[in-house]
Amino acid sequence: MKKLIILLFLIPIGLKAQDNPLTIFNSLENYTWTAEGKWGDGSTFKQEINLEFSLDNKIVKVESMGFTNREQTEFGLRNHGIRQYDEKLKKIRFWEFDIFGNLTEGTVEGEGKNLIYKYDYGGTFVTEMWVYKNEKTYDFIVGVYENGEWKQKFLETEFIGTLK
């Protein structure tokens, strides 16, 4: 009888862990993700991202390296980000604080192994999509995405993961 009670007690804990919406980030953990490309205006995109779960898996902390000056000649710590499941909204929200004093915030959705970020950027509703190719590769697209299709693409490249 004791074993049954212990088992019944542990089942909800296991189910609760599986219900954590932040598990959509599990495939990105333990890797450093790097990407290079060109924005639509011809400027260079270069980024290196690391993430880790924190606060008993209640948030995901993201650290991004990128260009730290407008001339794109210095590369270093550019952004600190947070992802958190908002119980009231029933959505994953994100905040990105950058070296220039800006804050970008929006929502993240999972679609299979794909990640879809949505946010307002200076009056333009932008979508960033991480499209799963394999364990170590995601296509990365930034643009205007409406009704299941890209209306405009600002950047298209891929992130490659290397084990930490």
Automatic annotation (TrEMBL):
Signal peptide: 1-17
Keyword terms of this UniProt record: Signal
Name assigned to this protein: DUF4178 domain-containing protein
Organism listed in the record: Hyunsoonleella rubra
Lineage: Bacteria, Pseudomonadati, Bacteroidota, Flavobacteriia, Flavobacteriales
